[in-house]
Specification:
Blueprint (H helix, E strand, L loop, with lengths): L1 E4 L4 H12 L7 E4 L9 H6 L7 E3 L5 E2 L2 H9 L12 H28 L8 H19 L11 H16 L10 H10 L3 H4 L6
Parallel strand pairs: 1-2
Antiparallel strand pairs: 1-3, 3-4
């Protein structure tokens, strides 16, 4: 399998964490792929018309994107406990947690992109609107930390990678302030080998 990746992408990190947790990391060849919100990577776009990472090409030549699809595909290939519970409330909780974490990341990335624009073109109201989504997501996760305990799921991994991205790009904003339960959960979760070995470069 080939994975188009960028080292600092939290979505790539999620995929690689799943690969590690399911014992498949060594089966994946990582292909560095530069991406930009304003300039297409033509080689990547030929495989994935969205021009985004991660993008996985299976051994059969099927191209899969984006991270939720790739993670569920990898989870279907191993014989251990599934990260995507098969049925019932546990499944919907895990998928909802993944959606919440990915939505937090989407908002954080939009802030990041806005910050790269020349100062005279930055839209303060836009940034504050996205920051409000990040904070609302953190508040929601703080309120359901108990649901982040128990058997490992795609929800746990998604939340862990989202919080790791906040540490990477928004460390000065101190997401732990006002979220002590979530901070305590993450402090322990971040010691998992899959988290340590996929930590993005500073």
């Amino acid at each position: 399998m080939n994975l188009r990746y960028a080292a600092t992408s939290p979505y790539v990190r999620k995929v690689m964490a799943v690969a590690m947790e399911t014992g498949q990391a060594k089966k994946i060849e990582k292909i560095p792929s530069a991406v930009s919100p304003t300039k297409a990577n033509e080689e990547l776009t030929r495989e994935n018309p969205l021009g985004k990472v991660p993008s996985l090409t299976t051994d059969e030549g099927l191209v899969l994107f984006d991270s939720p699809v790739i993670c569920e595909y990898l989870d279907s290939l191993h014989k251990g406990p599934r990260l995507h519970p098969p049925v019932g409330p546990a499944r919907w909780t895990a998928l909802r947690q993944q959606a919440l974490a990915d939505g937090l990341l989407d908002a954080a990335l939009l802030i990041r992109y806005e910050m790269t624009r020349p100062a005279e073109f930055q839209w303060a109201e836009w940034t504050e609107g996205q920051r409000a989504k990040v904070l609302a997501s953190l508040d929601a996760l703080e309120g359901e930390v108990e649901k982040l305990k128990g058997a490992l799921t795609i929800g746990h991994i998604s939340v862990g990678c989202a919080l790791g991205y906040l540490d990477l790009r928004f460390s000065s904003e101190g997401w732990r302030n006002g979220h002590p339960k979530l901070a305590a959960w993450y402090r322990e979760f971040a010691t998992r080998p899959s988290m340590l070995e996929t930590m993005p470069p500073l």
